[in-house]
Amino acid sequence: MAKDKKGLMFVLSSPSGTGKTTLTKKLASNNNNFSISISHTTRESRSNEIKGKDYYFVSRDEFEDLEKKEQFFEHANIFDNRYGTLRKPVLELLNKGKDVLFDIDWQGTKQLKKIKDLSLVTFFILPPNLKALKERLLNRHQGNEELVNRRMKKFNEEVSHWNEYNYIFVNDDLESCYSKIVNTISLEKKGLSQKQDLEKIKAKVEELIK
Ligand code: 5GP
Q1: Most CB within 10 Å of its CB: which of 59, 78, 177, 207?
Q2: Is the CB of 42 under 6 A from ligand 1?
């Protein structure tokens, strides 16, 4: 746990299209004490996204400038775009006693885990099956098969990092997955960890990537 900070850090990662952004937003909107860390990205904004709320959309030059000035807590290259979390706003939120939620990938999670004096609770969200995942992606990318196939190809690589996380949940039903995360967070806030059946999770992962 963040040792001398009052707030705690919770990371949600998953392959693209698993519902993690919906879960993160639901957690923040139902709990005043949660703040979502807003990332910087060089990718284009989507029609439903709000600048400064979903992301800070910046140019490559702006991103590289922040990187050179070592402003990032973590950053990663994903689908040819750069994504990163600034250090300062996160520390300000933690110092105010806010719990911070991160919707970031496994590369960023790895970097955050290495930072001294900050400890995280990390969640990895799996889709129930590949058919559901493809449907969600087609819906998000307005039927763009090429883009969807590219994201599906990345799936196996992303899922292979499941065992670097504290908790792994299957998003087969939004409400039940959400409740599992909320219960886990409230136990973790009391300093209580839960054990998961790793064999069962491993079997689920193998079913998804075969
Ligand atoms: P999308 O472009 O679909 O919004 O996000 C693509 C991926 O980038 C998602 O897995 C998301 O969690 C991840 N991501 C978003 N912001 C960050 C960030 O600041 N750092 C890292 N490492 N990953 C991020």
Answers
A1: 177
A2: no
Domain that holds residue 161: 9-37+97-208
User: What length does the chain have?
Assistant: 210
In a domain, 23, yes or no: yes
| Dihedral over alpha carbons 115, 39, 82, 156 (to 10 degrees) | 80
The residues facing 75 across adjacent strands are 84
Interval between CA 13 and ligand 1 midpoint (Å): 9
For residue 76 and ligand 1, the question of a CB distance below 6 A is answered with yes
Nearest CA-CA partner of 105 in 155, 48, 46: 155
Tokens 């493809």 map to which residue?
134
Q: Of 14, 17, 13, which is closest to residue 130 (Cα–Cα)?
A: 17
pTM over 0.85: yes
Q: Which residue has the tokens 């949940």?
A: 169
Residue type at position 31: N
Mean pLDDT of the chain: 92
CATH number of the structural domain spanning residue 144: 3.40.50.300
* 135: three-class secondary structure by DSSP: helix
Atom 12 (ligand 1) nearest CA: 104
Longest CA–CA span in the chain (Å) reads 48
Tell me: the pLDDT tens digits for 90-116? 999 999 999 999 999 999 999 999 988
Q: CA-CA distance, 137 to 144, in Å (whole number)?
A: 9
How many distinct structural domains can be found in the chain?
A: 1
Q: Are 26 and 118 in contact (CB under 8 A)?
A: no
CA distance 113 to 117: 10
